Amino acid sequence: MVKNNIPRLAILTALSSAVYYLETLVPFPIPLPGARWGFSNFAILYSLNSDENLINGIYIALFKSVLGALLAGKLFSPTFLMGLSGSLIATFTMYIVIKTKKFGIIGISEVGAIFNNLTQVTIGWLFIVKSIGIFWYLPQMILFGTFSALANAFVVKSTFRSVNR
What value, to the nearest 5°, has the Cα angle with vertex 123 and ends 121 and 126? Predict the structure, then answer.
C-alpha cells in the first residue's frame, strides 16, 4: 500500500463500514437471516477501478466487514463469515475482470455481485446450514444483487465524474 493511499483507504473503509451497518437496519425482501443489500461494496468497486490495486480492495473488504459487523454486534457470527467470504471472493473476481479490460464498471460490479452471492450461499451450505436447500435462495439473491450492483456502479461512476471535473 502506497503511503499517500492510506487516507483515501481509511475514508472508503469508514464510509463502507457505516453503510454496512445501516444495511443491517433496513429489512431485506428475502426472508434470509443476515441478508443485506450489498451497497457497502461500492468502496471496493471504487478502489479497484481507481487504482487497480488488489491489496487495497482486500483491505477495504476485510476492514469494512469487520468494522460493520462489530458495529452491528455480529462479529464472528455465521452471517459475518458468509459476508466476509463473499466480499473477498468478489474483490478477487472484480480485480480479474478489470484486468481483462473487457467490461465496463457495470459489468464488473455485476460479476462481483454474482460471485459474492454464490460464495455466501456456498459457505452457508458447507459450514453453517449444511443443507443443499440453501441454494434455492441463490436466484433471488442474484436478482436483488443485480440491483445493488447497478446502484454501486452508478455511485462509483458518479463519483468518478465528480472527482475528475
Answer: 110
